[in-house]
Amino acid sequence: MKPKTARIESIDLLRGIVIVIMAIDHVRTYFHADKFVFDPTDLTQTNPAIFFTRWITHFCAPAFVFLAGISASMISQRKTKGELSRFLFTRGLWLVFIELTIINFAWFFNPSFSFYVLGVIWALGISMIALSILVYLPQKIILAIGLIILFGHNLLDTIHVAGINLKAFIWAIIHDSKRLDFGNPNINAQYPVLAWIGIMILGYATGALYKKDVSQTTRKKYLMTIGLSAILLFIVLRAVNIYGDPSRWSVQGSTVFSILSFINTTKYPPSLLYSLMTLGPCLVFLAIMEKPLGSWAQPLLHFGRVPMFFYILHLYLIHLMVIIALVITGGDWHDAIIVDGLRNFHPPGYGFSLGVVYLIWITVILILYPLCKWYDRYKMSHKDKWWLSYL
After folding, report:
1. What is the pLDDT of residues 83-129, one digit of tens each?
2. Which residue(s) pair with 180 in the sheet?
3. 66 neighbors 131 (Cβ within 8 angstroms)
4. What is the mean pLDDT of residues 58-69?
5. Are 164 and 92 in contact (CB under 8 A)?
6. By the 8 A CB rule, do 376 and 307 touch?
7. What is the pLDDT of residues 352-366, one digit of tens each?
């Protein structure tokens, strides 16, 4: 058995920051009045405050998947390839299972399970299963596969499979994000897995920088160089406006809205430009935070070390708060039982301002902090319990 590796605080810090930011979008989804009227990234109706409330959360899913790849690489330093493959495969299956059960119920509170969203946890799970096979390949081949997927998957954007059938479903979960109304259940393939697999593979390849024989100086240099190069490449490709995102940017009526158009990239599935725009700053952040962290970072480190625990709890907490809000505003709490996806969650007279949304978000974080702090310390003091690695 290979020796255990120490945790890298910069990774936990980034994960903690993005998971806290992620909660903003989920609170907005359930509480913001304007959410029921228009898409926050629709430049014909939105405003900068609403746009950036949604846009800042674009960093979350790519960071989760990329960091999961780095973590897998770090685990490989203390496991054989066979052990790593089995761990990734079983953890991936577990994530798919809880997406379809525990997390599905958290989103909808619907015991009939008439609607499924194949979301970020699904994408994480399938990506881990794919990586469990690829880990047997040479590192350079793994990196090449990740780059080919990242830079090439947008060539598939024009391919669509019409109808509601098995072929349409398979293509939807691979690349063509769409909702399939099978009747019961209905399925929203929100996170097609191909691009996310590519991001996790690249995270795994980047994990080589965290090997013990790589100096901190070398790691910081490579992280900063790759991160800045990704940002620059995003700017150049977006300016050219030919390839890398199915949605082109355009000059708007003001400079601010032209900038919004420029950074308004496609998440479902994550385009090349979306990935460069989000992962570039993440890599730069990891380089900058490659240093001893002060006490200011401790709360975020607690969150970052227990991401799945936070993810599950925050969904249930937010949804319970929806019931309370419905009762307080004179609505029907039964509206919180969602039968056909969040696109049709619009109780009459329900909804709050953006300011209230942020207050609810802060409340959610404050409630969850002591629970995450306790669970983080429990995990740290019970490392012998294998099942803790699955939550």
Report:
1. 999 999 999 999 999 999 999 999 999 999 989 999 999 999 999 99
2. 187
3. no
4. 97
5. no
6. no
7. 999 999 999 999 999
Token digits for 299?
């709360």
Task: Count how many domains the chain has.
Answer: 1
Structural domain for 240, as ranges: 9-390
8 A C-beta contact, residue 116 and residue 104: yes
Q: How confident is the model at residue 349 (pLDDT cuts 50, 70, 90)?
A: confident
Burial state string for 299-336 with b = 16 or more CB within 10 A and e = fewer than 16? ebbbbbbbbbbbbbbbbebbbebbbebbeeeebeeeeb
The C-alpha atoms of residue 213 and residue 202 are separated, in whole angstroms, by: 20
The amino acid present at 242, given as its one-letter code, is: I
Q: What is the pLDDT of residues 129-159, one digit of tens each?
A: 999 999 999 999 999 999 999 999 999 999 9
Cα 29 to Cα 106: distance, rounded to the nearest angstrom: 14
Cβ atoms of 192 and 176 closer than 8 Å = yes
Examine residue 331 and state whether it is found in any structural domain, yes or no: yes
The full length of the chain comes to: 391
Alpha helices (runs of H) in the chain, residue ranges in sequence order: 9-31, 48-55, 60-75, 81-98, 104-108, 120-134, 139-152, 166-174, 193-206, 216-240, 255-263, 272-288, 298-305, 307-328, 354-381
Q: Going by C-beta distance under 8 Å and a sequence separation of 6 or more, which residues neighbour residue 279?
A: 62, 63, 66, 199, 202, 227, 230
- Sign for the pseudo-dihedral over CA of 327, 188, 184, 111: negative
pTM: 0.95
Sheet holding 115-117, edge to edge: 115-117, 186-189, 178-180
Q: Is residue 138 in a domain?
A: yes
Are the C-beta atoms of residues 226 and 217 closer than 8 Å to each other? Answer: no
Examine residue 4 and state whether it is found in any structural domain, yes or no.
Answer: no
For residue 227, being part of any structural domain is answered with yes
Instruction: Give the Cα separation of 47 and 40 in Å (integer).
Output: 8
Where do we find the tokens 């995003």? 234
Q: What Å distances lie between residue 371 and 310, 324, 363, 381, CA to CA?
A: 9, 21, 13, 15
How far apart CA 166 and CA 259 sit, in angstroms, is 40
The phi, psi pair for 314, rounded to 5°, reads: -70, -30
